[in-house]
Design goal:
single chain, 156 residues, eight-stranded antiparallel sheet
């Protein structure tokens, strides 16, 4: 019984110290490599995103983002699933689809040329992460300032 308790404590300690590294995952850079139209209300984009992952391998899926301005939905972004390699910094080439909301006009999109307009935009992001052992969790971050996300595009 004592061995089981010691093994359990060792496993819990390992899990806790390993999980701490998830908060250290960071995006080093992001850039748009290619953009092509997809009908009148959509775009396909090829992205290059460098991610530094000191934690274990994670499969990311169901990645969705909603772009909003003053509570009005401007569009949705989806990114194809991919596996983030563990304990390494790596550049991932991702495919994204952007779809404008049906109530968004061309004028609304031209407003992105105004820096003040972009500074007021917010993004809601949802991502499902799955570890090698099968444990998965869906994470959601709401009302992230768009300018905070775009700072990564200025790198490299």
């Amino acid at each position: 019984m004592r061995r089981i308790a010691v093994l359990f404590m060792a496993a819990a300690l390992l899990c806790v110290t390993g999980c701490g590294k998830f908060t250290q995952i960071k995006v080093n850079s992001a850039k748009i490599e290619n953009v092509s139209p997809n009908g009148l209300r959509g775009l396909n984009a090829d992205l290059a995103v460098e991610i530094d992952n000191p934690a274990i391998q994670i499969k990311l899926s169901d990645m969705k983002a909603v772009l909003k301005y003053s509570g009005k939905v401007l569009g949705n972004v989806t990114v194809d699933p991919f596996t983030m390699k563990g304990r390494t910094a790596h550049t991932y080439h991702l495919k994204a689809k952007v779809k404008l909301d049906k109530d968004v006009s061309l004028y609304d999109m031209l407003m992105f040329l105004d820096k003040d307009y972009m500074d007021k935009c917010k993004v809601d992001i949802t991502v499902k992460g799955k570890l090698r052992g099968g444990l998965s969790k869906t994470m959601t971050k709401k009302d992230i300032p768009l300018k905070k996300l775009l700072k990564y595009a200025d790198k490299k």
